[in-house]
Predict the structure of Thiamine-phosphate synthase.
Amino acid sequence: MTASLRERLASARLYLCTDARTERGDLAGFLDEALAGGVDVVQLRDKTLEARQELAVLETMREVCERHGALLAVNDRADIARAVRADVLHLGQGDLPVRHARDVIGDGPLIGRSNSTVELASAADGEDGVDYFCVGPVWATPTKPGRAAAGLPVVEGVAALRPARPWFAIGGIDLGNLDEVLAAGARRVVVVRALTEAEDPRAAAAEFGRRLAEAG
Ligand SMILES: Cc1ncc(COP(=O)(O)OP(=O)(O)O)c(N)n1
Ligand SMILES: Cc1nc(C(=O)O)sc1CCOP(=O)(O)O
Ligand SMILES: [Mg+2]
């Protein structure tokens, strides 16, 4: 029997957000390596793309995700998530409310939400139609400039809630500070630069996977 999207999300530990790597022209090769290393979910997060370009990039990503059994996530846009039949739509605080996004994408795909406080995370954990949530940025990060760090205490606060839904820590996380995030209680992480800028994305993803699995 094929695992449902929710079952696949439940076992996901490592979530990658990547841009289209247009200038480097190596998106499929990069993803092949990162997913071979053990990335479970991949999101296209590239604010420079027009809708048509985003759709084309996502079609490429879908092929790689299917080959590796990873979930494909769309950032922000419910219309694009529907068009590409994405597995996941990720919504921030400024994006469509969940119920409106559900009207567009239907009941099948998963929806994730971003949060920066324990209170927002608690609300997301109880919000109808939300399948997982993220909390961050744990550390200030050049990938999302201008956002103050939420810090490890927010990760500790969310862990103390013992959320019913899967949740991920995000923001400034790399192999050098992963142990601090795990010690704060997170068991799933989202990363950008730790893989997009890794010399060996497969080895880096494998090391994330090993340490996340060891943490339980
Ligand atoms: C998995 C994941 N978590 C958090 C975010 C951030 O979403 P948002 O706050 O909407 O900011 P942008 O990424 O859209 O700039 C995310 N994209 N993915
Ligand atoms: C896309 C994003 N969202 C964040 C949030 O806190 O919601 S932090 C972030 C960027 C994370 O990038 P890196 O792993 O390179 O620090
Ligand atoms: Mg967003």
About this structure: The first helix runs from residue 5 to 10. The chain has a mean pLDDT of 97.
